[in-house]
TrEMBL record:
The lineage of its organism: Bacteria, Pseudomonadati, Bacteroidota, Flavobacteriia, Flavobacteriales. Catalyzes the formation of the alpha-1,6-glucosidic linkages in glycogen by scission of a 1,4-alpha-linked oligosaccharide from growing alpha-1,4-glucan chains and the subsequent attachment of the oligosaccharide to the alpha-1,6 position. Belongs to the glycosyl hydrolase 13 family. GlgB subfamily. The keyword Membrane does not apply. SUPFAM superfamilies: (Trans)glycosidases, E set domains, Glycosyl hydrolase domain. InterPro entries: A-amylase/branching_C, Branching_enzy, GH, GH13_cat_dom, GlgB, GlgB_N_E_set_prok, Glyco_hydro_13_N, Glyco_hydro_b. Its EC number is 2.4.1.18. The gene is glgB. It holds the Pfam family CBM_48. GO terms for biological process: glycogen biosynthetic process. Pathway: Glycan biosynthesis; glycogen biosynthesis. This is 1,4-alpha-glucan branching enzyme GlgB.
Length: 648
């Protein structure tokens, strides 16, 4: 009896789509699938290795001997090797023994494996993505939660260092243990979404997950595929969306990974000017190879399909789109038009977005992109790349540069905070304060702020108020919500003990209040991506470092006013308002409940004078280093309320 039984899950149409680069559910065909043939249970294997001399399945079940179970090559020149091995079951460890044309035997993990071992061997595991989901209500309504007209406040987190074992500070919590703690925390803090830094299998912890080897495998550091599904399911059942970081930009050169997979440059571009990343010492996908395109887009669809992800944040898009990224003159080759755009990568990203939104119109794709590459969030049919949102990196860098400056000198940098409003509607932007800004000697956010302890916290609260009232979706990296003092360290838990101190507890309460206000005040999100959503009242008072702007909802009278006083002085400040309006303070970042100094922000006077090109004015007491939010009330409503107050 032969060790390999001929069998195939591929139809002729599957092969045609795969070779054309248009098969987007390859995970249903490739990899290891537990099936039954003629009453015999076992596992069907399929792998793409077109230039291999022979391919076998090796593992504990055959003593890792490459001669025992040789897969059969397909006759159609697809480069696929396949076959059925009886008696194998879930949990069995395996790899592919790939004999190159030069006779070298490579031991490779399965590119489509659903789980990998956590050891030096890093074998693939026969596994399954079967799970009994109970998030039907969320999935049915998530198009509204992911809408650009809905509030989106994202908590970015690294699963391995958010919180560690209470009994052992070096022990990872499992996905299920994280669920027990994360779900109530997310609900308490009122974030709308969580974004997980890569949870696809990766061998090197210092890469934070961005050097992926198992693109279809949930990392087994924290448990099984079903354990991750449990975490996502619990978040969904509690009305919290899940965004996954996705890395189609590069992969590491690990011996059992994709690099030189069948003895040739199969997944990566052979030309090192296009195929090797000099900064990360990793390998860049060959976006022009149809089978690689099918692999990557299938991977994106897989996480949305099998894991119910609500969005994908695509990492390092700038490096994908630019042939000269991180390269000196002579180290890159211009495209056919003589430019620096990687035309194959651009086409891949367009096809990726088209495929995702066709299959899952209720999810969102987000580009992490730091250049001014045009039309990233415009539809593909209009010549755009098709992303749902783009990280507004320029806003993040300008804002942090401004807040680092001593308040006495801020008048010389006034336009750093106003400049973002010039281009904020060019794309659908997400405002990030991400993990990249609190590592590698950049200091934590709280220690970027100038001044003594009180001033540092006051500055950071003002920054957060500015962020949450600026047009665009929001993203805050874990620990920043309570002003973690040390830089992020992926080997340690966040410093949750800091919450025993009033300044840190006050910061956490402030972020909670901002999230609550953001979710409940439609003026802060309904027109996030429309020029009708923001209006400057005064952007020119550099001497006092004062900024005043309006945020507007779809209804005419749905208006908030934001006033930032970014110096340590208390001011009585005259502000122009429209006729027939009255204003009520609804949030003051200097309030004592947030560990502020307690200077009360209040409207001290209302005047009929024309001011700031508006017919009337108010005089507002401004607390030091603070942001204040006021809500507009129609004068008629204000008069009625005043009469009621007098009667009472």
């Amino acid at each position: 009896m032969r060790n390999i039984i001929p069998h195939s899950l591929f139809s002729d149409h599957d092969i045609y789509l795969f070779k054309e680069g248009n098969h987007y559910k390859l995970y249903e065909k490739f990899g290891a699938h537990s099936i039954e043939i003629d009453g015999v249970e076992g596992v069907y294997f399929a792998v793409w290795a077109p230039f291999a001399k022979e391919v076998s399945v090796i593992g504990d079940f055959n003593g890792w001997h490459s001669e025992a179970h040789k897969l059969l090559p397909r006759w159609d020149e697809s480069g696929i090797w396949e076959g059925f091995i009886a008696g194998l079951k879930w949990g069995d460890v395996y790899k592919y023994g790939i004999r190159t044309n030069k006779g070298v035997l490579l031991e490779k993990g399965d590119p489509f494996a659903l789980s990998w071992e956590q050891n030096l061997q890093a074998g693939s595991l026969v596994s399954t993505t079967w799970f009994e989901w109970t998030d039907k209500n969320w999935m049915k309504d998530r198009s509204n939660k992911n809408s650009i007209n809905a509030p989106m406040s994202v908590y970015e987190m690294h699963l391995g260092s958010w919180m560690r074992g209470t009994d052992d500070p070096h022990r990872f919590f499992s996905y299920r243990e994280i669920a027990e703690r994360l779900v109530p925390y997310m609900k308490e803090m009122e974030f709308t979404h969580v974004e997980f830094m890569p949870i696809m299998e990766y061998p090197y912890d210092p890469s934070w997950g961005y050097q992926v080897t198992g693109f279809f495998a949930a990392t087994s550091r924290f448990g099984s595929p079903q354990d991750l599904m449990f975490l996502i399911n619990e978040l969904h059942r509690n009305e919290i969306g899940v965004i996954l970081d996705w890395v189609p930009s590069h992969f590491p050169g690990d011996a059992n990974g994709l690099h030189f997979f069948d003895g040739t440059f199969l997944y990566e571009h052979e030309d090192p000017r296009k195929g090797f990343h000099p900064d990360w010492k990793s390998y860049i996908f060959n976006y022009g190879r149809p089978e690689v395109k099918s692999f990557l887009i299938s991977n994106a669809i897989f996480w949305l399909d099998r894991y119910h992800a609500d969005g994908l944040r695509v990492d390092a898009v700038t490096s994908m789109l630019h042939l000269d990224y991180s390269r000196n003159e002579g180290e890159w080759e211009p495209n056919s038009d003589g430019g620096n755009v990687n035309l194959e990568a651009r086409k891949f990203l367009q096809d990726f977005n088209k495929a995702v939104y066709k299959e899952f119109p209720d999810v969102i794709t987000i580009a992490e992109e730091s250049s001014d590459f045009p039309m990233l969030t415009k539809p593909v049919h209009d010549g755009g790349i098709g992303f749902g949102m783009k990280w507004m990196m320029g806003w993040m860098h300008d804002t942090l540069k401004y807040f680092k400056v001593d308040p006495i000198d801020r008048k010389y940098h006034h336009n750093k905070l106003t400049f973002g409003s010039v281009y904020v509607y060019n794309e659908n932007y997400m405002m990030p304060l991400s993990h990249d800004e609190v590592v590698h000697g950049k200091a934590s956010l709280i220690y970027k702020m100038p001044g003594d302890e009180w001033q540092k916290f006051a500055n950071l609260r003002a920054l957060y108020l500015y962020m949450f009232t600026h047009p665009g979706a929001k993203l805050l990296f874990m620990g920043n919500e309570f002003a973690q003092t040390r830089e992020w360290n992926f080997t340690q838990s966040l410093d949750w003990h800091l919450l025993q101190f009033p300044f840190h507890k006050g910061m956490q309460e402030f972020v909670k209040r901002l999230n609550h206000l953001y979710r409940n005040e439609t003026a802060l999100y309904e027109n996030n991506f429309s020029p009708q959503g923001m209006e400057w009242v005064d952007a020119n008072d550099a001497d006092n470092s004062i900024y005043i702007y309006l945020r507007k909802g779809k209804k005419e009278d749905d208006v908030l006013m934001v006033v930032l006083n970014l110096t340590p002085r208390v001011l009585d400040y005259k502000i122009g308002i429209d006729e027939g309006t009255s204003w009520e303070v609804i949030l003051n970042s200097d309030d004592t409940q947030f560990a502020g100094s307690g200077v009360k922000a209040e409207v001290e006077d209302e005047e009929d004078d024309e001011w700031m090109y508006r017919p009337n004015a108010i005089v507002l007491k401004l607390p030091p280093l603070a942001g204040v939010i006021l809500k507009q009330k129609k004068l008629q409503t204000a008069v009625v309320e005043k009469e009621k107050s007098v009667k009472n």
